[in-house]
Amino acid sequence: MLNFSTLTLSKLKSMYDMPVIPTNGELKSYLKKAIRSLESEPASYRPQDKAGRPGSLLYFTDDLPTVIVPDLHARADFLMAVLSMTVSSSILPETKTAYYSLMRPQQRTTVFEALQRKQIRVICLGDALHAESRQRDRWLRAYAGFLQGQKTNASMVEEMQEGLSLILMICALKSAFPEHFHFLKGNHENILNQVSNGNHSFKKFASEGEMVFEFMKQVYGNGTLQLYDTFEKSLPLLVQTPWYLASHAEPARIFTRTEIINAYQEEDVIFGLTWTANDQADSGNVPAMLKDLIPDNPHARWFAGHRPVLEGKYNLRAHDLFVQLHNPSEMNVAIIPGKAKPFDLQTQILSVAQWAPDSQGGER
Q: pTM score > 0.90 for this model?
């Protein structure tokens, strides 16, 4: 039985350092724990859908600071850097713990330590698997082998070792800190490579969606595949607070709060919050939804990943209210202090690369 109540940064680092892919037993155990956490999230912050299950909306009203993390794409080092990043204790809410009382006001603490003390929230915007352009040549080598019937060739094993080590970390964090660590569904959360249920099959440099599906089926079997699919279909789609909204992608149309909560009965809502390309949606969708869901804060913004930022730390769209964070060449995150004031995107969006366990962008 896995016990994540004593999860440490060194235990997460051991997952990152895994020299081989997880065993079938390991992967199933981690997925089951994460699913249990996702399926038991309380209605106080994850309102139930019409089927009586935790819906697709996360709704927070507290003043906890938040770290928003864009697309990870098999970069376990990116997640390690986020957790190892230090923040000033002055932005964290006070607690009555003896440890905190000994801290000087401007002393710095890691995000992981703040998670342990329930002083911070981490929101990941989806897309755990598929290394994409960072490993374009590896995908091409894996594809050449795949076309020859080699579904578990060396390049594919290397790709999946990176991706699945990240999945173990995500599952462990969700199990250890269910109210404070969250991972949203992105368009790459489609392990079955479905063209249904709001999903679309994926291919970019190779036939990534099909290749991952066939690898998982051959190495782990249908039971683990279905368990992984259950994990993906338990993930939320949108975060709402008094200061911001966050999702994987730009909304394809104006969605109501009820539609978002019941997204897993509404395929177009899933597709419309995970697949929207630039200029595919009306620029009025974001301001309309911000006004509807956060009517009392004129400074509210919407944060998302999905479409790449090719230069700089972020892109602005939808009348400058929609902030895209995903620069695949960098490790940028947004720090939201949890206070109703205008965002300073130049200072609140920053790189965590200096805290990464290596300097190769995750290539081990």
A: yes
